[in-house]
Specification:
single chain, alpha/beta, Elongation Factor Tu (Ef-tu), domain 3, Rossmann fold, seven-stranded mixed β-sheet, 16 strands, 30% helix, globular, binds FE2/S2 (inorganic) cluster
Length: 274
Amino acid sequence: MNEILIKKNLAPNVWLMGIFSPQVAKKAKPGQFVILRVVENGERIPLTIADFDKEKGIVYIIFQVVGKTTAILASLNENDSILDFVGPLGMPYEHDPNDKAYLFVAGGLGIPAIFLKVKMLYSEGKKIDIIVGGRSKENIFFEDELKKYCENLYISTNDGSYGKKGFVTDVLKELLESGKRYDEVFAVGPILMMKAVVDITRQYNIKTLVSLNPIMIDGTGMCGGCRVLVGNEVKFACVDGPIFNGFDVDFDNLLKRNLYYQDLEKNAFEEHKC
Ligand code: FES
C-alpha cells in the first residue's frame, strides 16, 4: 500500500508522483488533499490531490522540494512506499451550477490545486480561462494538460523568459480592464499573490475563492495548527477549507502564522542536507 507507481520530474525540484491508494482514489473529489508521512518520526505534510484514477487506484500528487520532508519524499523512487497516506481530507470544491465563466489564477506551485477543478468544470461545459505564473520558463509545467480544458491559457513569468513579463496579477488586471468578465475567479498560490488577486477582483465585485495551505499537523480539526481567520471567525483549513471566500480571508494573519515556522523548517532542511 502507498507504493509509488509513477515518478516524474516536472520542473527543477518539482515532482509528480502517482501513489497506489485505492481507498483515497475511490473517494477523492476536486479541492481535497492528503496528509502524508514519509518516514517514522517524520512530520506530516498536506498535499493537494492533483488528480486520481479510481479504476487503477492511483492518486497523483505534485510537490516542490522546499524542506526536509519533501527532500526525503523526492529521494524515493518507483516501487518505494510512503509510510502514511491519509485522505481525502477537507471540503470538496463547490460551485454555483448557474455560473458559466471561470477564471483560474495559479501562481508558483498552484497548478496542482486547479487541475481537477478545471477538468470537472470543463466536463460541465463551462467557459474557462487560466492564468499561470512562475519565476521563469522552467517553472511553468502542465501547460499542455491545462490547454486541453480551457479556452485561453495566459502565462506570465517574473523574468519574462516565457509569456508576459511580470506577475499573474498583471495579466488579471489587463483582462479585467479590457472588459473580460467572469462569474468566479479561483486563485491559488503564494499568500501575497492570493491577497493581490482578491484586491483586484474586489474592485470588480467578482466572486473569488482561494485555496489556503497553512501549516497542518493532524488534518482533523483537533490540533489547531491550520487556524485561519475568515470573516473574523476562526476556521480550520483542514476541515472547514481549504477553499474559502477570498474576500473574507485575513491574509495578513495567515502570513504571520506561516512565518512562525519558517526558521525551524529552514534549519531542519539544512541539517538534512549535511
Ligand atoms: Fe490540525 Fe487542522 S491540521 S486543526
